[in-house]
């Protein structure tokens, strides 16, 4: 099958973008029964984790389903930071319980990503590794429509409700990778800010830094027109920053500027701040899910994956972990110092959107890093990778984990290799 | 089936939004074969009108389909300003030629709307009037997925590639109405600015005014939270202005400010201006397709429908017509004078986005109308409904046609009745 007519063009002229339909607002999660009934669903599996189950939201969703004549069951076996093994367990459960004609994911990124995988593997033939991104898997495209999946985020962070990908650890290969295809995109994102009112301040802060990184990394990602032209069959989900992802990221940054600090410090009572933050999360997902993220997220993989004994406040204390939003943000100030020269105007504009009142610094490369540091200090994010247990001597062990994320590093607007990643990690041991 | 949990809320807290996936850029239209093959399509009908057929674009699309092993046929019988009769003829043709597993619409709003109807009526049981909006039709929801429809706009105007509705004249009832349902939304919008390079200046100007009205009417539409709370089964496609439609409309207005005049006056050579204008059209569709339009579009129905002998330059001279973009914009200055008090800040911000350098007028209600008048004069839009053949004595005959558009008038931020419409039409006989 040959390429395209415009075969004489050598630079990229095309970008792609997609987003799920959105139902947003207080009470939206009580309408899911209607929405899935409209999709023709009669028997639906609600997929969640035990922590979210305890909050009662999955059963509230199941009630909404039953009110519209839809049979609902709840699976609460989602594993935080899912893996090929935890995906397999969820798929096995779903298959053992008969056939489903719709799914609802209730929770953070782990629940939504697990539901995407369950939907894929119960709708299409083949096994997980057929669909996992190359080179880890075989990168096969699903060849038929999946069942309708409604995604209901309960944290304001990952934006997984907006994206067409899921992330997993492949345990045997000790690598974090994903599945990316437009068919994985939820049929509907139901975003109800009231579900986030009770998030602890520490979780609000960490998850919010994930939003910040999504928005700023996408906004500073390589411009789509600067890649080499791709044939249609070579196009990827992450096509670089573009006029549509910019819209969403800019708005997400403005919402963060307005409401992030209040959501952390007064979130239990401030519906407006919670509304802005979950809107920012969904909007950033509409952006980065198409543009892509770069160095901070690539570094986040080893920073979370090689954790020693860090136990963050506000999280369960039974196992060591670096929350995803901390892992991706701890190297962000230094990463944006590095990427600054490739797109100075974008870095400065991101800084202005995130902190409209910040004074102009003498060194423009320092503007965005300082805006991020001000924010991180105000909301209690640890001071660099040193504060979550890594010293300078750990850096050489972290670097290969970052370098494996070539799909993300390719989105960086400035070429980046081992040497640059080493320097960024070293300079991120302490951020202020 | 009962309502929802949040039944104690009396004001609306929920908005909805949806958009097709987008492939945008020079050469995008040569990739449609790949995209429809990904959707599993094997036999596809390309739907267009004779004017667009003569430009060669539909056959170029058919070639792209064949390169990916997809059988393609072309139907060029689309009627400009489609009706129940022209929809029926297109459906009859499609059905007589066997079964299709995908459609491509190539053209303006008429072709895209006709393809939506053909897709609906060849995918679902029942007849046209089952699906037409109440009270004209029975307002039934399609109960199954339609076939994938790829929409390829060739004018920068209607934004029909972005929306989940189609508009038609019901000839026997002499009324213009539509079908609105999320299943009608194209599976993919392929927006290729190079397809618009040869549009004549007059067509560029009229179609562009449709974009302006989409963006400004949506942006000034009643805020979604000011409607009474709806049960899920009562929600409509047009939910009022909201944070997502605002994003798209604001960007559309900025693109118009930058490039509309250049697209009209230098469009044959100015790829950048053409790119901005077709992006503005698609973006405005992403906005108004969810928020809704109000008085100017409601007036556009009788102004176009009751045409006497106006024959605009740049259009075929064989029949009298008021181009859609003229019909909807000729009463816009006066309509926005009327709606101003209901949302002054939004009207002023729209004026600033459309004309950042315009001086501030003493009367703020005059700012947006004057910005529109400056633009209309610069690009050669007729001076009011008087210039397309209507005098003051015609106004009483026009009013009922506007009043039939209650679905649109309900979106106006200020209550509007016959008296107000009469005054708006009278004051729009001459705009400057």
Automatic annotation (TrEMBL), chains A, B:
Molecular function, one GO term: hydroxyacid-oxoacid transhydrogenase activity
Keywords: Oxidoreductase, Transit peptide
Alcohol dehydrogenase iron-type/glycerol dehydrogenase GldA domain residues: 23-193
CDD domains: HOT (cd08190)
Gene3D superfamilies per the UniProt record, alphabetical: 3.40.50.1970, Dehydroquinate synthase-like - alpha domain (1.20.1090.10)
UniProt EC number: 1.1.99.24
Reaction equation(s) it catalyzes: 4-hydroxybutanoate + 2-oxoglutarate = (R)-2-hydroxyglutarate + succinate semialdehyde; (S)-3-hydroxybutanoate + 2-oxoglutarate = (R)-2-hydroxyglutarate + acetoacetate
Enzyme class name: oxidoreductase
Domain Fe-containing alcohol dehydrogenase-like C-terminal: 240-427
Family: Belongs to the iron-containing alcohol dehydrogenase family. Hydroxyacid-oxoacid transhydrogenase subfamily.
Protein name stated in the entry: hydroxyacid-oxoacid transhydrogenase
Lineage, uppermost ranks: Bacteria, Bacillati, Actinomycetota, Actinomycetes, Kitasatosporales
């Amino acid at each position: 099958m040959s390429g395209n007519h415009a075969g004489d063009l050598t630079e990229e002229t095309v970008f792609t973008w997609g987003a799920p339909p959105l139902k947003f607002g207080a009470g939206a999660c009580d309408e899911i029964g209607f929405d899935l009934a409209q999709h023709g669903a009669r028997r639906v599996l609600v997929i969640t984790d035990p922590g979210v189950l305890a909050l009662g939201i999955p059963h509230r969703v199941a009630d909404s389903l039953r009110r519209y004549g839809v049979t609902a069951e709840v699976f609460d076996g989602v594993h935080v930071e899912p893996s090929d093994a935890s995906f397999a367990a969820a798929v096995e459960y779903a298959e053992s319980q008969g056939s489903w004609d719709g799914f609802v994911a209730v929770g953070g990124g782990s629940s939504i990503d697990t539901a995407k995988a369950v939907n894929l593997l119960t709708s299409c033939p083949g096994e997980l590794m057929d669909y996992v991104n190359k080179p880890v898997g075989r990168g096969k495209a699903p060849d038929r429509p999946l069942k309708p999946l409604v995604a209901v985020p309960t944290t304001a962070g990952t934006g997984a409700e907006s994206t067409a990908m899921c992330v997993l650890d492949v345990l045997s290969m000790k690598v974090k990778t994903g599945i990316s295809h437009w068919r994985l995109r939820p049929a509907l994102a139901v975003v109800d800010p009231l579900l986030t009112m009770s998030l602890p301040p520490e979780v609000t802060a960490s998850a919010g830094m994930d939003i910040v990184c999504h928005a700023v990394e996408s906004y500073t990602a390589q411009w789509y027109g600067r890649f080499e032209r791709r044939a249609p069959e070579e196009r990827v989900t992450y096509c670089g920053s573009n006029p549509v992802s910019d819209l969403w990221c800019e708005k997400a940054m403005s919402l963060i500027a307005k409401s992030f600090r209040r959501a952390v410090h007064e979130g239990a009572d401030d519906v407006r701040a919670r509304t802005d933050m979950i809107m920012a999360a969904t909007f950033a997902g509409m952006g980065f899910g198409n543009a892509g993220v770069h160095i901070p997220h690539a570094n986040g993989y080893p920073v979370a994956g090689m954790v020693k004994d860090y136990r963050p406040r506000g999280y369960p204390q039974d196992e060591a972990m670096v929350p995803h939003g901390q892992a991706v943000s701890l190297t962000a100030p230094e990463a944006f110092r590095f990427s600054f020269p490739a797109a100075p105007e974008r870095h400065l504009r991101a800084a202005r959107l995130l902190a409209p009142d910040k004074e102009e610094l003498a060194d423009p490369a320092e503007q965005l890093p300082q805006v991020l540091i001000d924010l991180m200090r105000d909301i209690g994010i640890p001071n660099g990778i040193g504060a979550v247990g890594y010293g300078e001597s750990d850096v050489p062990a972290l670097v290969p984990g970052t370098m494996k994320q070539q799909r993300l590093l390719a989105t960086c607007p400035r070429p980046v290799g081992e040497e640059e990643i080493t320097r960024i990690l070293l300079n991120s041991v302490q951020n202020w």
